[in-house]
């Protein structure tokens, strides 16, 4: 069945279809926004999921140049559950890892809710953080 622009506008007005934009004569699904309204950005060729993550990277880079931290890495993958011959594996990707005073620090940048005074953590992140502690013995630092 071929839809005309008039058919699509009539269905939108009647509330039968939502989340579509009409461009020319073909309906196009509108892009869904980010859950926490973050905007992906880039800095010195590195991609970041948010401006807050980029700003944290800049801060850590300054600390590294001052010699306070060493071995700064971005988006490090940790395997949490590996099933032999399985197509999928459960992994956690840390935003940053670095060495400070001879100890490994694993950081994850999360949005902060000023109303509740808490970081916004998804249920999946909470499960992965618990697995990181059990499997690797690493506590994730949330910033």
List the SSEs and their pairings.
Layout: H1 5-13, E1 20-23, E2 26-29, E3 41-43, E4 46-48, H2 51-65, E5 70-81, E6 90-100, E7 103-108, E8 112-113, E9 118-119, H3 123-136, E10 140-142
Parallel strand pairs: 7-10
Antiparallel strand pairs: 1-2, 3-4, 5-6, 6-7, 8-9
Explain what the structure shows.
The chain is α+β, with helices and mostly antiparallel strands. Helix content is 27%, strand content 35%. The protein is built from three helices and ten strands, in the order H-E-E-E-E-H-E-E-E-E-E-H-E. A four-stranded mixed beta sheet has the order 5-6-7-10.
Give a quick set of tags describing it.
143 residues; extended; alpha+beta; four-stranded mixed β-sheet; 3 helices; two-stranded antiparallel ribbon; 27% helix
In short:
This protein has three helices and ten strands. It has about 140 residues and is of the alpha+beta class.
